[in-house]
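Lab notebook, bench 4. We co-purified these components, and the gel suggests they stay together. Before we commit to crystallization screens, I want a quick structural picture of the whole thing.
Request: model the full complex, all chains together.
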Amino acid sequence: MSTLELKEATMQFGGIKAVSDFSMRVPEGCIAGLIGPNGAGKTTVFNMITGFYTPTRGRILFNGLPITGMPPHEICKTGIARTFQNIRLFEGSSALQNVMVGFHVRQKNSWWMPPFYLHLKEEKQIRNQAMDLLVRFGLDRVAHMPAGSLPYGAQRRLEIARALATRPSFLLLDEPAAGMNPQESTELMSLITNVRNDFNLTILLIEHDMKVVMGVCSHIWVLEYGICIAEGDPDHIRNNPKVIEAYLGEEYLKYA
Amino acid sequence: MSLHNMRNYICTALLTVILGLFLYYAENNLNPYSVRILNLLAINAILAISLNLIYGFTGMFSLGHAGFMAIGAYVCTLLILTPDQKVAMWLLEDMPDFLLHLSLPFFPAVILGGLVAMLFSLIIAVPSLRLGGDYLGIATLGFAEIIRVVITNIPSITNGSLGIKGIPEYANLWWNYGWLLFTLYFIYALLKSNVGNIFKAIRDDEIAARTMGVNAFFYKVLSFCVGGFFAGVGGALTATLISTIDPKMFNFMLTFNILMIVVAGGLGSITGSILGSVVITIMLEWLRIVEDPFSIGDFEVAGIPGMRMVIFSLMLLLIIIFRRSGLLGMREFSWDAVFNFFNRRKQEEWRRS
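Here is the predicted assembly.
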């Protein structure tokens, strides 16, 4: 069974086709990867899935439900969450407040309740759940610090925690290992696998660190100039001559 | 409720009582000039807090405050004037009958003034909140000017550019500070809850907020309308404090005065807005002494009119240069901070002895 399905999705900006006729089916519960050289259209695919771009042509289905052209906050409600390539935290708010914003989408309280003290029960629940998530990601000690002042690795983890607060069933990670050293990216790999298992997620990630991609992904799509040039399991991708030529390079085979 | 929270509630209640006692003292003992300044201070604080909600907390650069104030002021005034006053004052054109006999007590009139201002802020918000940054500032500034020009040009309702005089001076210390407390309570409660987190999230990164499932447009309109309501209330109180209004009063300089208070106090700090309105309102009056003639020995210096604005501008420059994020930045007053401060002091003394 597949959770997310793209059917010949095409995104055209003026004369440029950022993504053309891209079809993919992400099986439920797997960790899938989307790789390709810079400017291949990977982030455009993410933006189409999360509703920031409406595909020029083609359809996107999530659990069989068409989500093409829905606004981002509605798509989040259906259970898709994402992180960003360049971290986008709410920098003026504390780590805890960042995660609490994530919980808002499942919150029943309306905006007019606070002045009448009707929100306290659920608010307390949200605060506790947010705190639990922070503990899970080792961020409880910095819960009340401004998110912008946290170290880089912590900001990355906080962004994942915030995404998980929306209770997604599908998580999109845009270059989670960017700017990490080898040790940190090894830790990230186990974090991603653990998160998938603990939260019952399907994960699709964009990544340039081949060790991470080959290590955690069970299925990989390769984009070049907006066209899907290969898909399959890591072994298949590693040995695909087209992928080697376009992206991995000859050296990769020697050192991988 | 924990002991800790209990302490904070008791402290807040005590502070309110002290404020009440002070107002009682001020009403009976201070001269009318000082009372007027105290009144202005409260109204400025209401306006600054409402603008801070829009600009400092939700990140929408809005310059429409004078327009909302004008609506609040005119609606409230039209509702509290007696039919006789209206007949006597409307010289340019006669007032329509239904308005002539419409009359309400002060409190509902102020609320209606706020609600109508809120309705207009909703009408303005829906098309213009699609804009961001400086463009929004220009659009709202334009709307505020439109409101002012329309008020000037419907003399049958607003008495046009002649303005309205002899408005009963209902807005005494109690009403103004009562409304200030209500504004504080309402906006603080909103900001303390998750709604406040969402406002700040939209300010910090709207795209990320939308990805997190926040209907950013709805919350921006909400913030704008709540701010518009309190701006309308502030306008209504201004009208009933100074007892005369005309369209020229509500030009964009008024908006900039409030913006100045908000920025000097600290964008994103309610405490800062209050502190800012105290400092700026009092300074503007106190600095009048530099305009008086004074003498150094035998040398007589004539007063220079406008001198206080020069010094005042210099002060603002100093604030912006040395404390770029305003007097308080994004910090807020909290009882915890106060008690921690004193505890630390005590511990230090204990350590020293």
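Chain A has a mean pLDDT of 90. Worth comparing against the SEC data before the next meeting. The domain at 1-79+168-256 of chain A is CATH 3.40.50.300 (Rossmann fold).
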